[in-house]
From TrEMBL:
Any one Gene Ontology molecular-function term assigned to this protein's record: FAD-dependent urate hydroxylase activity
Protein name: FAD-dependent urate hydroxylase
Cross-referenced Pfam families: FAD_binding_3 (PF01494)
UniProt enzyme class: oxidoreductase
Species of the source: Streptomyces lavendulae subsp. lavendulae
Superkingdom per UniProt: Bacteria
EC identifiers of the protein: 1.14.13.113
Gene, per the UniProt record: hpxO2
Keywords attached to this entry: Oxidoreductase
Coiled coil: none
Length: 405
């Protein structure tokens, strides 16, 4: 199928990937509508992509070459133990991933967006609907209405496109929170020992009622240490539960900073507790963890991608890969279709079940690593390996599934 006009609502990772896919597949006109006016590239979060997923996506043209990445090889699971500064190793597993800086990944995807894409910032979409002729009607906050052959919702957690496709789908609070931060890796020289002893590894600190993953990422000004800490919420009512980022970077209250400091001192091996405490307040935030699955990813001339389609708890390490896979499946469905209806049906068949499987796996991981943690310190390596296989429940691993042929 050739031709047609496409509006992509949202211009971050999923939005850039979907816009590029539409152009590669043969759209006449592609417009990205992004509400943010500033530089999305300033977001400093870390993320990982499995090496196999990266190879598939690069071969499909969805993951451009040259984007800075840090190679990871193994995952170390450690517990706090007296006399062990870095903790006691209870298990080690292969971890064939590369880590990325969110902003640098977005910058690479944005630079690779074809010149024909119109990327309009500062445009807030208030709603979408099908018009009388069956095409997509996009209504912006200033009251104007634009019409396209297809509207793609790549507008994340609070998707207005999802409201039209699946109005009954709502995010579900998982019952715990995620603290995030990153720091200049050079600051590790301030610690005893002077450096991260395992720069090629993900270190997972395990404790009763939570866990934390720590790993290197590239940064705009050099390597950084990224960390993601899952734990029960503070009990003093300091958090709101109506937004995925209750306290964005730099907005933590003194009470929340004190809660985090106490958690690091109480539960972490001394080295890792001191390392994370070096994170600047401007690079630290906390968010409640949610997940969401949708019954369908398409309706009429509307289509969902990335977090607009499914919100997956971060334990699965699949968010960026899933968004890029959505774009790859979208382009493949377009090339095989002879109508919009066939395109949307093929995409739904490919990506609907994939998203629901990711949500289910991440829920199992969250229960095992936060909600119902095992007696880590009393477990042997073989016992931890068996516990891990139980979480996977037959899935080949984390990081997302292989793309369907």
């Amino acid at each position: 199928m050739q031709g047609g006009t496409v509006a992509v609502i949202g211009g971050s990772i999923a939005g850039c990937a979907m816009a590029s896919a539409a152009v590669r597949a043969g759209a006449d006109e592609v417009v990205v509508l992004e509400r943010t006016r500033g530089r999305l590239a300033d977001r400093g979060l870390g993320l990982c992509v499995h090496d196999d997923r990266a190879a598939e996506l690069a071969a499909a043209g969805a993951l451009p070459s040259g984007i800075p990445a840090h190679r990871l090889e193994r995952r170390r699971w450690v517990v706090r133990e007296p006399g062990a500064e870095g903790g006691r190793l209870i298990w080690e597993q292969p971890f064939p991933f590369h880590s990325y800086h969110w902003g640098l990944l977005w910058r690479g995807l944005r630079a690779a967006t074809p010149d024909g894409v119109r990327y309009r910032q500062g445009v807030t979409v208030a709603g979408v609907a099908a018009d009388a002729g069956g095409a997509a009607e996009v209504r912006t906050a200033d009251g104007s209405v634009e019409r396209y052959d297809l509207a793609v919702g790549a507008d994340g957690y609070r998707s207005v496109v999802r409201e039209a496709v699946c109005p009954d789908s709502r995010p579900h609070y998982a019952g715990y929170v995620c603290w995030r931060g990153n720091l200049d890796a050079a600051r590790l020289t301030e610690l005893d020992g002077g450096t991260d002893p395992h720069p090629e590894a993900v270190t997972t600190v395990c404790f009763a009622g939570g866990s934390c993953v720590i790993y290197r990422i590239p940064g705009p000004d050099g390597p950084r240490v990224n960390w993601v800490l899952y734990a029960p919420p503070p009990r003093d009512g300091a958090l709101r539960y109506d937004d995925p980022t209750s306290f964005p970077p730099g907005a933590l209250t003194p009470e929340l900073r004190g809660h985090l400091r106490a958690l690091l001192e109480r539960e972490f091996p001394p080295y890792w507790g001191r390392a994370l405490a070096l994170t600047d307040p401007a690079d630290t935030f906390v968010q409640p963890i949610y997940d969401l699955e949708t019954e369908r990813t398409t309706a009429g001339r509307l289509l969902l991608a990335g977090d607009a389609a499914t919100v997956v708890r971060p334990h699965n390490t699949s968010g960026a890969a899933k968004a890029l896979q959505d774009a790859t499946a979208f382009a493949a469905a377009w090339r095989r279709a002879d109508s919009w209806e066939k395109l949307l049906g093929t995409y739904q068949a490919a990506r609907g079940p994939a998203g629901r499987e990711l949500v289910a796996l991440a829920r199992r991981l969250g229960r095992a690593q936060v909600e119902r943690t095992p007696p880590w310190a009393r477990m042997s390596g073989d016992e931890v390996a068996a516990w891990w296989r139980t979480q996977l429940a037959g899935a080949p691993g984390i990081g997302g599934q292989a793309l369907a042929p």
